[in-house]
Design a protein that fits this description.
single chain; membrane; DUF4386 family protein; transmembrane; transmembrane helix
Length: about 200
């Protein structure tokens, strides 16, 4: 694949990543609220699991678009910045793995709440919920490290505008603080949209 085509594909992936984030934000706010509690999630899984299933499917799709961007930036920066970009890409890959594990376990929990499916024991559900939380936090944390590396490298090499890179650095820093995940999602939508425009314009 030529550099121009790879850039265009990555630009489309960035726009899709932003769109998926926007849909995720809408579903979260409209169905779960700003700070959903476990009891609310459990009741939703029993009575109307569609929003939860949709969120897990959005995570899976987002992991694909994220992987496209991770590969793009690795190939773009590896010649002159191999050391930092290698570790950043590893963090990005770990973020994708954590997100997929989070999505599939969460999906199994939601489906287990259906009356048609043999329910899990309460202790099993509690353990799986803890795993979902841990991998969810891990995904955001590793992704934050990736944002920091990519945007710091882009700033150092003057690849993108300073304002774009500083937004990405801020996104990376905030991603390291788990309670601010909703702000992370908002900034990610803006950053990915901006990145998509940059890549498709040039």
């Amino acid at each position: 694949m030529s550099k121009a085509v790879n850039r265009k594909v990555s630009g489309v992936a960035a726009l899709l990543h932003s769109f998926l984030g926007l849909v995720t934000l809408f579903v979260v706010i409209s169905s779960l609220g700003i700070v959903p509690n476990p009891d609310q999630l459990a009741e939703l899984a029993r009575s109307n699991p569609f929003p939860l299933i949709l969120l897990d499917l959005l995570k899976i799709l987002s992991s694909i678009t994220a992987m496209v961007l991770i590969i793009y930036f690795y190939n773009y920066f590896k010649v002159n910045n191999l050391g930092s970009i290698k570790w950043g890409s590893i963090a990005g890959g770990l973020s994708v793995i954590c997100l997929l594990i989070n999505a599939f376990i969460s999906l199994s929990l939601v489906l287990s709440a259906s009356p048609e499916i043999s329910p899990l024991t309460p202790s099993r559900i509690s353990k799986m919920e803890m795993v979902v939380i841990i991998f969810g936090i891990g995904s955001v944390f590793f992704n934050g490290f990736w944002y920091l590396v990519i945007n710091r490298t882009a700033l150092k090499n003057k690849v993108f505008s300073a304002s774009f890179c500083y937004l990405g650095i801020a996104l990376g820093v905030i991603s390291l603080i788990p309670p601010l995940s909703l702000i992370v999602l908002l900034l990610m939508i803006v950053w990915s949209l901006w990145l998509g425009i940059i890549l498709l314009r040039n």
